From TrEMBL:
<feature type="region of interest" description="Disordered">
    <location>
        <begin position="31"/>
        <end position="50"/>
    </location>
</feature>
<protein>
    <submittedName>
        <fullName>ABC transporter substrate-binding protein</fullName>
    </submittedName>
</protein>
<feature type="domain" description="Fe/B12 periplasmic-binding">
    <location>
        <begin position="74"/>
        <end position="352"/>
    </location>
</feature>
<feature type="signal peptide">
    <location>
        <begin position="1"/>
        <end position="29"/>
    </location>
</feature>
<keyword id="KW-0813">Transport</keyword>
<dbReference type="InterPro" id="IPR051313">
    <property type="entry name" value="Bact_iron-sidero_bind"/>
</dbReference>
<dbReference type="InterPro" id="IPR002491">
    <property type="entry name" value="ABC_transptr_periplasmic_BD"/>
</dbReference>
<dbReference type="Pfam" id="PF01497">
    <property type="entry name" value="Peripla_BP_2"/>
</dbReference>
<comment type="similarity">
    <text>Belongs to the bacterial solute-binding protein 8 family.</text>
</comment>
<keyword id="KW-0732">Signal</keyword>
<dbReference type="GO" id="GO:1901678">
    <property type="term" value="P:iron coordination entity transport"/>
</dbReference>
<dbReference type="GO" id="GO:0030288">
    <property type="term" value="C:outer membrane-bounded periplasmic space"/>
</dbReference>
Length: 354
């Protein structure tokens, strides 16, 4: 499982797919194609008013093609990362998707700090994506004219086919959260009619990282390890690749994954496994650790954790799920990365002083 965010389990995907069967009926019942059950306004940004994109527009993904007949006005994201992409483009989603893990990480609001910054005074309703609960009626009432699903793990072929028959679905090419966030941003921006905005926000996020590096040259070349969580059975999940998510972010700050971690067998999410007794091998200039809350008790109870030299020095950067940081860097977007850069770089420089 990826860090810090539920994948909105596949079983929920079936419920979302079922919603597609009634979305079309609900949309047809409205006299105003851009209206909604709660009377909210259209969601495209002012910048999209004079789009350079020609419609109809066809986009492809892993499960097939989707045709967007006209510039979308009511975009519905199926994951928080998809909501982030829309927000980064200046587009307010018609609803913000949330589940139990998201609620726990946000103190019950369903909104991460960087999303709150982007939303300002806007208060979209929540689309509750819960196992055992059905969002069918809510999705129908929302009347989307495009569904954004680059980061929704519940999307499979059957779900896509049923949804896409009613509302065009913009989705991933390989797997959810499987492409660079820049590519997903460009795809969504094209569909929404704001391709230039994508380049603007991508450049801003990259510039933020580069400026942080320039302002903190002491970080360049320092080594790190990252412990993702206790897998049980005597093993910890650790970062074994810096090609995606948290590893890609930390490396973009100028740090390098410690050599030992790169020798571990790696899964598709970039993780390796280390036994409890071998935790001491995870030494580096800085050790990052993902925790459920601010409490470090899940780790300090292990003798091996306390023998890591970096831990003994206090050179630890904690990424608590309740802070939003694991979500910000594990499921990146332009706005989450800018926010995370401001949060994480000071923690790194402080750890390096230990």
């Amino acid at each position: 499982m990826k860090i810090g965010q539920s994948r909105f389990r596949t079983s929920v995907g079936a419920a979302v797919a079922a919603a597609a069967l009634v979305v079309g009926l609900a949309a047809c019942s409205s006299d105003d194609a851009t209206g909604s059950g709660n009377g909210s306004a259209t969601t495209t940004s002012d910048a999209a008013a004079e789009s350079t994109v020609s419609y109809p527009l066809t986009v492809s993904g892993k499960f097939g093609e989707s045709t967007i007949e006209a510039q979308p006005q009511r975009a519905l994201p199926l994951s928080p990362q998809d909501a982030d992409i829309l927000l980064s483009l200046g587009i307010t989603p018609i609803a913000m998707p949330t589940d139990a893990q998201n609620q726990a990480a946000t103190g019950g609001t369903g909104i991460f700090p960087w999303e709150a910054d982007a939303l300002g005074d806007e208060t979209p309703e929540q689309l509750v994506m819960e196992q055992g609960g059905s969002p069918v009626e809510q999705i129908a009432a929302l009347e989307p004219d495009v569904i954004v699903s680059t980061g929704f793990w519940g999307l499979d072929q059957a779900t896509f086919d049923q949804l896409n028959a009613q509302v065009p679905v913009v989705h991933f090419d390989t797997q959810a959260n499987g492409e660079p966030w820049e590519n997903s941003t460009r795809k969504v921006a094209e569909v929404m009619g704001v391709p230039e905005k994508a380049e603007e926000v991508i450049a801003a996020a990259h510039d933020k990282l580069e400026q942080a590096k320039a302002d903190n040259p002491q970080v360049e070349g320092k080594t790190y390890n990252a412990i993702i969580g206790d897998m049980g059975g005597g093993q910890m999940a650790v970062l074994a690749s810096d090609e995606r998510g948290i590893g890609q972010f930390i490396s973009s700050l100028g740090m390098e994954l410690a050599p030992y971690a790169t020798t571990l067998p790696v899964d598709q999410d970039g993780r390796g496994l280390v036994s409890y007794e071998n935790l001491g091998d995870l030494d580096a200039d800085v050790v990052f650790v993902v925790t459920r809350t601010d409490d470090m008790g899940d780790y300090t109870k292990f003798e091996g954790w306390n023998t890591i030299p970096a831990v003994e020095r206090g050179a630890v950067v904690q990424l608590a799920r309740t802070s939003g940081l694991p979500n910000a860097v594990g499921f990146p977007s332009a706005i989450s990365l800018e926010w995370a850069t401001d949060q994480v770089m000071p923690k790194v420089t402080e750890a390096l002083e230990k």
